[in-house]
Design brief:
This protein is mainly alpha-helical and about 130 residues long. It contains 7 helices and no strands.
Length: about 130
């Protein structure tokens, strides 16, 4: 299985601390839980989507791990079938990407390492594309 202490977030935080680098949390656990708490019906529809697409999402996790180990496929749309309803995707990913963009643009000038989850890197309003605008 996957262990949190092997996760990229944990590894990056440990490396930053070891090198006395400041850590600026853009979207931490409290913000993420806050998003889920604001969902209609306490997130029942998201839970239903998650359970419906459980096996597909597990395979997608393996795809993402494969990309990390090698390289991503040319046609990302075929590798990532839509398992979220559009309104959930907009709320959980697109809106957050715009918020992350705004937060990053408000930081003082300097060199930063930005770590985000892989789903923030793909789609019509992916974070790298928004930052290039």
């Amino acid at each position: 299985g996957l262990r949190a202490d092997y996760g990229i977030d944990y590894q990056l935080i440990q490396a930053a601390r070891a090198n006395d680098q400041p850590i600026i949390e853009l979207d931490g656990p409290e913000e993420q839980l806050g998003l889920l708490r604001k969902l209609p019906d306490q997130g029942a529809a998201l839970l239903a989507d998650t359970l419906t697409h459980w096996h597909t999402n597990a395979r997608l996790l393996q795809v993402v791990i494969g990309w990390w180990l090698e390289s991503r496929p040319v046609d990302v749309r075929q590798a990532f079938p839509a398992t979220f309803r559009q309104d959930f995707y907009r709320y959980l990913m697109t809106d957050r990407n715009y918020h992350l963009k705004s937060t990053l643009q408000q930081l003082p000038p300097g060199a930063y390492l930005v770590a985000v989850g892989p789903l923030h890197l793909y789609g019509a309003d992916h974070l790298p594309g928004l930052l290039r605008q």
